[in-house]
Amino acid sequence: MVVLWASRKKKRRRLAIGVNTEKRMIEKVIEICLRNRFLVITGAVLVIMLGIFAVRNTPIDAIPDIGDLQVIVYADWPGRSPKDIEDQILYPLTTKLMGTPGIQTIRSTSAFGFGLVNLIFKEGVDYYWARTRVLERLNFATSDLPSDAQVTLGPDVTAVGQIFWYTVENGFFCQNHPQQSYPEPGSCPTDGNELIPSTYDLGQLRSIQDWYVRYQLNAVIGVSEVASVGGYVKQYQIDIDPYRMVHYGVKVTDVLSAVKRSNIDVGAKTFEEGSIEFIIRGVGFIKKIEDIENIVVAAQDGVPVYISDIGSVTVGPDFRRGALDKAGTEVTGAVVVMRHGENPLRVIQGVKEKIEELAVGLPSGVRIVSFYDRTDLINRAVNTLRDALTQEILITIFVIIIFLLHFFGGMIISIVLPIGVLISFILMRVFGIDANIMSLGGIAIAIGVMVDAGSVLVENIYRKIAENQQRGNLSTSARLEICIDGAKQVGRPVFFALLTTIIGFVPVFVLTGQAGRLFRPLAYTKTFAMVGAALIAVCLLPTLAYYLIRGRLRLPDENIVSRFLRKTYYPVIRWSLNHKRIVVIVFIAFLAAGLSTSFFVKQEFMPPLNEGDLLFMPVLLPGASLSQVMDIMQKQDRIIKNEFPDEVEWVVGKLGRAETSTDPAPVTMIETIIHLKPKNQWRRGMTRDKLINQIQEKTKIPGVSPIMTQPIRNRIDMLATGIQTPVGIKVFGPDPKQIERIATGLEEIVVQLKGVSSVYAERIGSRPYFEIEIDRNQIARHGLHLGTVQDIISMAIGGMNITQTVEGRERYPVRVRYMRDFRDSPEALGRLFIPTPDGGQVPLSLLVRFNKTLGPAMIQSENTMPYFRVFINVNQEVMGLVDFVRIAQIVVDERITLGELQIPPGYYITWSGQFESEVEARSRLAVVLPICLAVILLLLYFAFRDIPSVLIIALGLPFSMVGGIIPLYLLGFKFSTAVWVGFIALFGVATDNAVVLISVFRSIFKEKKPKDVGEVREMVARGGLLRVRPIMMTVLTTVLALTPIMFFTSAGSEVIKPMASPVIGGLISATLANLILVPLFYSWIKEKQVPK
Amino acid sequence: MSADIRISIVVFFLLLTSLVVFSCGEKAAKVQLDQELIGSEAICPVTGDEFTIHESTPVVRYKGQEYYMCCPGCDTEFMKDPEKYIMLMQQKEQSMENETGKDSEIQYWTCSMHPEVKSDEEGNCPICGMSLIPVYEGSESENALHLSAQDIELAGIETVPATRRHVHKEIMAVGTVAYDPELVTAQEEYVNALQMSDMIDGDGLTAQERATQLIQRSEYKLRLLGMDAAEVRHLRQTRKPERSLIMPEGRNWIYADIYEPDMGWVNRGQDVIATSSAYPGENFKGRVVSISPILDSQTRSVKARIRLNNMEPKLKPGMFIEAKIIAPYEVRSITGTSMVITIPKDAVLDMGNRQIVWVAIGDDKFQPRVVKLGPEGYAHGDETGTRYYPVLEGLFENEMVVINGNFLIDSESNLAGVAAIGYGGALGVQEKEAAPVGHRR
User: Fold this and answer.
1) How many CB atoms lie within 10 A of CB B205?
2) Could you give the CA distance from residue B148 to residue B163 in angstroms, rounded to a whole number?
3) Cβ neighbours of residue A526 closer than 8 Å, sequence gap 6 or more
4) Min Cα–Cα distance to chain B from A828, Å
5) Beta partners for A39?
6) Is B435–A757 a contact, with Cβ atoms under 8 angstroms apart?
7) What's the Rg (C-alpha) of chain A?
């Protein structure tokens, strides 16, 4: 491509005028740069410095955040059922949040005690702008909600924000040096005394976490929140005895208001005494149990009734919805959640430094131990990419020097790479793109192509200087003019090569959804790298060439490498030109063979990234109690720790949720992080897959679904509330029971279809509920209000945190509840006393009906309509997703029409899932990819004004495609979006060499009209010989640069490899096709034109 | 083997008799025993025992079928609620079939480690290479769930036999130490009336009548104040008013409020354990002496008068007392005892519409049973505080019920393997793990 434009210098006038002005502009830039060399070099140094600054400050993470842009609204209403949360909070809330500007979908989840509204914004909306819009709406949206429900905007974090988990746990310490804590028993290094274990209970550890550690870590820059999990929150518990209350004639409400009114400090301004001002305070905060016991609830005949008369006060644990376990022992801990767009490495660094500082103030023996730390993964991924980049750069430089055989010339070209990378980092910073394996991968696949422009330019200058040198010595001004001229000649081609590469990558920019979020950074960085390389080539290289290309120069075409290449190429091309049929048949056979292998390559959405740590996620059916889940978690953790001592470093399990809105896990879900030891310590023959299988086998417990995933992946999935399987059906409707019936009906239909590997309809409609249904007639008979009864139900049975103690920095809730014996069984509940207006007390069982029933464990809705999901995994080797969905839809519709699956009014189903994004990606690519190819070919047509030439050039595309498929098949990769991106990158460069050849042929044939077939062949072969060196150079820089990546095994390589392999294979086959087929066809055409 | 012969005999004859008497009505009725059946085996629907039919075996015909009872008495029991016993008998038959299900048809072959593997032929598991085990027709429909030894250990499954126990409820009631001058006065009036009547013994008729009327009136008053007939009779004999109702001497009395839902449970003579906040930790034993006939409309309760056995009357009148009334669960049974089959509360999975108990039927197999339960209570002699349910239907004595890990077994039977897909695990799962393990294709 580049050379074409150089050689077609004279034809330029024929092109449109608009292009001409650009040409002038580029040439002007080149001239200005060369005439202001000092400024250029200063500018370059400045760019380098800026680049280094950018490299240091760009946020680095392992993988890009591919989750939706979503703002979470969190509603907390302790102790309430999912039904109540849905009806009283989420439904009214979501109806009012509908219509927020920029919103795509609103999804909500009502669970036990809390609800989440996920507002998913359109792509491209600014995150903080979106949050402000939501906040605006929340102002009035919360006005109708129950007053004791708290609705808050979730923290400004994304799914990948959970970067650091730690435990606060007991350790060992020396009595004489209590500041230092040790993980293991032993002796003190200072005085040799035996270490003693610290013995803080889970409540005390949680208090340390909540009041000492939490807010300090929260203050670290970039930390959005620190969410505690596990242990027990200390709580003052007033357990009241309903019988004694009957005796004393005390009502529950009396107790509540009495306690509330007994916990306050007040201020009363000041008074003066002897010109001193005293501040007056009324002191009355609850500080100890006795303070509560002595609260007077009522007076009976002048005798005060104290809390201690009607109940007991103890310090106990608050109601828990989460727990943490380390290898079978309960611990307490927390997760550090990073703010949106921060640099995780730096934040973790800050957190760790803060933990060091805090360690001094921890009670003796207590330690803060991290059990999940993103740093390691990030470093490994970034190291992989850094290694890849360094190796690529070195190999490229080596190839260039070999081909040019001029050290300084080679160095000048090579300088494009580091500065180009730095420029792309600057641009990444400007465009707000993080460094991660995808964006760095973009640079990695660009490296080989980046030097092309520079090498063309430098080579041209080199040749000119060399030619002129042969004529005699050069004066300084002549040298400058030669450089300007040499650079100008290729300035335009450089620009156009850049244009085609960028156009070639346009399809990646138009990808949407997860694929878009994943690969757009890559497309950006690749473009940045190309732009950077072009900038350097145009501005800096001529200047450097001016200074550095000196001494005795040999024409590059005469060095050993080019002579060797010509010697090999000439016989080959001559033979091919003489045996066209055989060659064409061989190539067609190759094409067919390659295409047929494509049927054996499987498909997947995205090659999974190996995160290092494992996340073991056993899930129980809704309704399992916390203690049951806890028991399972501890057993499994112990097994994992003890059975795999060589592989597992530590194992920490979490059940339920940490106190953050980014963690919606129910109690029945365990998330166990398994940190593995370095692979060289593993038992012989153990692989990651084997280990996963063995862990699952060893920890198999009936009724528990063991799922093994990875921490980041899981967070993204947990917060993506849509359907994560390739295909899914959403059943919408008002009543969860009906929805579940329809969903299971669908399950039965779909499971019979061809290509289904598994189907699962959500069964979240079957959590046990105990309903207390108030009989309106009965309460009317006693003159009671329904609300009075409900208040007592919620306060006395559920208990209520009515106030908080203020103890220094610490705050603990005070709750009132009936004594356990009076509320832990249906019968006991029946004996709750309800005070009647006429002073009597009526047992609850007279006023209500008790029902044990099944209700939803969780209610999910989308745009205010509840829905259940049916997950379908499709075996894509049997049937493609899109086809499957088409057939399945027909079948389901048929069953509905036949009435076999009844769908009542108000209900409907929609099909959704990954296939949507696949369909969309495909349809977009189907339009954009041909358009891009067409645009490239159109540009070529404008260059040549000759359709046969363009067609011959286009020949490279099918061959590059086949060449790309074969390595996929051989290496066992699957077709994924990553692979497609590799192909797109390939198409951008696959035609370049053909262009080079055609242009040289055209100029040769222009100079001389061949007389016979033999001469045509000779001329074509000669043309090929002229260009075989530059072609081999550009190809080898790209192919050899990418080769080391194929041997990488470290983190991140699993994503880059499938992307690189089509480029390598495709470029090799395209080059072969170009070097042999293009001359062949060109000669064919010319031979026909020869007069017989 | 013998069991199915037995069953087939029973079924055969049931069919035969139903043919003969197909026009029989809905009501269960006693019929004559067919002499040919003597010596064959049958299952008694009431006790669930197997027995040999002999000459005096009672036979009941119900809905055209004949049922054989092991012993006289069972027939009357059966006729009270035939449906219930037929259901029980069918369950029993099924569980017996289960033990000897070898002859039933093999449905498919599966791997004990990978239940998603289903094969029509015998062979080895494609995943682990273990030889496949057969799954018999019917065993799946009965829902018997097979667990491996590892499963049982990890799930912490524990079983206990469903044994017969005396069950009682503990009814909590609040009360005060009695200060009831009204009753004492009434008692004294009554005693006076009796004495008067004694004194005018043999005298004029009108005086006698008047005395009797007086006695009757004061007796009525006593009844109104909560003394029952027996107590009044006792008072007539002793002629000693209970002064301890005002001034504790030798014993304490308590008035406890019994609320409507508990009234059916509280009876005269039941044991009471009373506690007072004045003497924490001290239990005062006593007995329900009488229950007032009138319900206090304001508190919706009746007063139970309880006499404590303490010799040293520590409690002062007017003090608050919490009384625990031990109300035995009375059940009428054929054997005449009030022992009932009980299971610990932990064994029951109560889903509201039905109560399920998982029964270990041997060979690491577990079977769900829908049971009908009586009220929850405590067992006599059981100091652990375990609560028990009397089983009215659905379980035989000494069957092993699961008391720990039953939720897990139930979940496993509901669906295995894929519940977590709902939480987004689907992507992380490899394909074979995502296969719906428990689902029927």
Assistant:
1) 7
2) 27
3) A442, A443, A445, A446, A505, A985
4) 9
5) none
6) yes
7) 37
